[in-house]
């Protein structure tokens, strides 16, 4: 499709200056950085959303992506890049004496997600727009996101609210006419549901601009508002706090991503959040479908709904309820339509992440939906009488089972993960529904994760093979012959050096971290969890520190160990891992014997913008989860595409990365998923591993003895006791692989070639490829460009 769907009339600079004066109320000479980025955002939004032709959409199949997270980060630079407005904007900033890069940095990260789940959703929406597939993303407009992370004097995680929405967002266009009323509680019968409480779901639309600006989709996020915002009678009676109580309670629903669910109140709020945005999305989808004049029986032909993990799993009973209670459809017909329309992406094999809601809580908040879940189970049991698998079982509603039963397709997100789904968590359901599970390996958008975040590398690639790779990442294969050219190889090494210098300067200025760019930048950035094994990394760091102290004149490869990531507020063990990393950093960085060859830094408040600095500068990518536990990963793909070889296990998409870049360009260690299962069956496996490796034993003794402070008994006891994630058992091979990385890094030419081959052979990991797979295999959707 041509660019005729975008308003390209008039000067973009003129539009920006108009918004600066009419919306920000300042002249260009008076404008601050905040004024400039907001005016730019408004001008971009106008240009991106104008001129869409409803006639072109009338018969298209629409994709609707429901997700608890959309980790979009900063939007402006991505939008300017995709609209090819970067040069004009730079010129505008130069004319008015504004710093273009500083203006971009003035935009706060949108606090709408936490980790890979949310960043994947953001990449998918951008690829849907790039490919011209009509789509809506649906979620919550969180006022405070997850939390803003800092560290106290002891190196423990401290949490404060994110304030990214304090002054509003120019990207979020309120759609008051599309507000929905969402109920909770009350009573239910065969005649329907009679909620006791209700809130208003107020949508705001954010534009998602594809490459070349040829198509823009919509991210529609809901804010919770009270039905009755203010009680004047209570206010006049002197109950000022009580007068606004309903507003405060309603807004609680959209304040924080993943509220702590270690309390009954937290569990109730989480379920409310999930139903709130899912129900609002389904009402909006059906309203738009009916406005297009389609008959309900054609819903699966015109609409595809993707459930991103189990958070929106309540979509199944809610869609059935909307079709039966509110539109008079027979239950069996409604269920059949729902099962043809809904699809489910599974992101985890961890039992605790496959949500289970206590049936008492579920029934109290959603009584009609609990009845419908029972009817869905009954229908499934009638269809499969020999093997009953129910969503409601053992006093809980199992959202993974519900999602599977109610879905047309269920997909995993890497080849290994998909096979393990069939063999483990969904083995019974897979046997009942062969062929329902299929794979769609994750990908990342090259626009954000190469072209925008690593302009030096993007320029080098374009100079060598042209710019077609931005929309067709497989073209990176054309780089491989250039790696034989000494001049190109030196330029590639120079890109990495320059990126490391930039990162070192930023870390020193923003975080007081002094880093030598000549060191290997060894990076692990991801949410903190036992299965991701940040404690394996810091344990090896302790062992390395001890080895250097024992032989300070040895031929050591200088390393900077960089960590980033947040632990869930209620996840005590994960927070102790953060505490340990920071405590080790304090000791190691102060050691005059080792500090020139080993440094450790944990950068606080990891987010998308930080990732955009770290990934281009990384030398080594740490992807060290226990085999069989990481569904896919997308950070591993971003690092490989930016020339950082992987230190990893055969887990998630690591398997496919290694296959594509070549085993010789990947630092493999650790047990396979099958070996993990067998190892867990060995009595005392952790104690045996510690006894067999003197380095491991010495590192654990140092932690137990308080060399890095007190408070780490739980970690030590785990490493020597249950050690479910097999940190101790994989330690010896991890040490071996790290020393192999040292050896290769010492050979500048060899390392550069390895990095270059990672770039050249990782084109398959584009989210464009992933979305094409979803469109063909799951949604049956077509591009408007075809």
From TrEMBL:
InterPro entries tied to this protein: Glycg_phsphrylas (IPR011833), Glyco_trans_35 (IPR000811), Pyridoxal_P_attach_site (IPR035090)
Catalysed transformations (reactions): [(1->4)-alpha-D-glucosyl](n) + phosphate = [(1->4)-alpha-D-glucosyl](n-1) + alpha-D-glucose 1-phosphate
Gene Ontology biological process terms, A to Z: glycogen catabolic process
Entry keywords, A to Z: Allosteric enzyme, Carbohydrate metabolism, Glycosyltransferase, Pyridoxal phosphate, Transferase
Single GO MF descriptor: glycogen phosphorylase activity
Cofactor(s) it depends on: pyridoxal 5'-phosphate
EC number(s) given by UniProt: 2.4.1.1
Keyword DNA repair found: no
Family in the record: Belongs to the glycogen phosphorylase family.
Record's function text: Allosteric enzyme that catalyzes the rate-limiting step in glycogen catabolism, the phosphorolytic cleavage of glycogen to produce glucose-1-phosphate, and plays a central role in maintaining cellular and organismal glucose homeostasis.
Name of this protein: Alpha-1,4 glucan phosphorylase
Record lineage: Bacteria, Pseudomonadati, Pseudomonadota, Alphaproteobacteria, Rhodobacterales
